[in-house]
Amino acid sequence: MTNWNELWQAGQTPWEKGRHAPPLDELLERMDLAVWGGGPVLVPGCGSGHDVRALAAKGIEVLGVDLSETAVARAREYPEVPEARVEVGDFLDAEWGNGRRFSALWEHTCFCAISPVDRPRYAEAAARLIVPGGMLVGLFFLNPYDEGDDRTGPPHESTVEGIEETFGRWFERVDDWVPTRAYPGREGREWLALYRRRDGEC
Q1: What is the 3-state secondary structure (H, E, C) of 23-63?
Q2: Residues 28, 79: contact at Cβ < 8 Å?
Q3: Is the pTM of the predicted complex or chain greater than 0.85?
Q4: Main-chain dihedrals φ then ψ at residue 134, nearest 5 degrees
Q5: Are 171 and 198 in contact (CB under 8 A)?
Q6: pLDDT category, 121, cuts 50, 70, 90?
Q7: What angle in degrees, to the nearest 10, is found between the helix axes of 160-167 and 119-129?
Q8: pLDDT in tens, 15-43
Q9: 202 close to 120: Cβ distance less than 8 angstroms
Q10: 94 with 75: CB under 8 angstroms?
Q11: Cα separations (Å) of 114 from 29, 83, 86, 109, 153?
Q12: Is the residue at 183 inside a domain?
């Protein structure tokens, strides 16, 4: 199991780009803010909180959660943005989610970071935490590998078909596209998808 806190402490964080995900700008320009519901919005695996602050800057209440105490401490070093909060916690842990409900979830680099065997747990946690009719908005890293890379991950690759199978029990896809904006090197490797939580208990 990856020790994320040790990686943060050692500065071995190639996913830390110093700014929020460029496709998030594209999404915010393309979609009405109503897609996020009334809040709060959950950002699992938030790292140093760039995406949390970008969403909160739009007036959306956002909670970022990360396993790494060091990552959360880094997030708290940035100037405060009203409506933005970060905390240490395990998004996959049902006890952490007990009593919490969110109008939407923003997925970016958490799904590809966990072991593929834990992806059903991710979908179940999301279904448990998002209210019926709420949205799971995901930026999925389909192909993180260059030729010759060690493919053991993380990050772990995905396929659209696999993502559909993982979330299909509780969510229906309502929109998707390949974003035109990306961090350098990720062009054409990501897929942005919007899923609506179906009615029914998890």
Answers
A1: HHHHHHHHCCHHHHCCCCEEEECCCCCHHHHHHHCCCCCEE
A2: no
A3: yes
A4: -75, 170
A5: yes
A6: very high
A7: 50
A8: 899 999 999 999 999 999 999 999 999 99
A9: no
A10: no
A11: 29, 27, 20, 9, 9
A12: yes
Assign residue 75 the CATH number of its domain: 3.40.50.150
Q: What is the pLDDT of residues 145-201, one digit of tens each?
A: 988 888 888 999 999 999 999 999 999 999 999 999 999 999 999 999 999 999 977
Enclosing domain of residue 160? 24-197
Listing from the earlier edge strand, what are the strands of the sheet with 84-88?
Answer: 84-88, 62-66, 41-44, 102-108, 130-141, 190-197, 171-177
**CB atoms near residue 113 (< 10 Å):** 19
DSSP symbols for 157-186: ---HHHHHHHHTTTEEEEEEE--S--STT-
Is position 150 within any domain?
yes
* Per-residue tokens: 124: 């179940």
Number of folded domains that form the chain? 1
- Around Cβ 122, how many Cβ atoms within 10 Å? 20
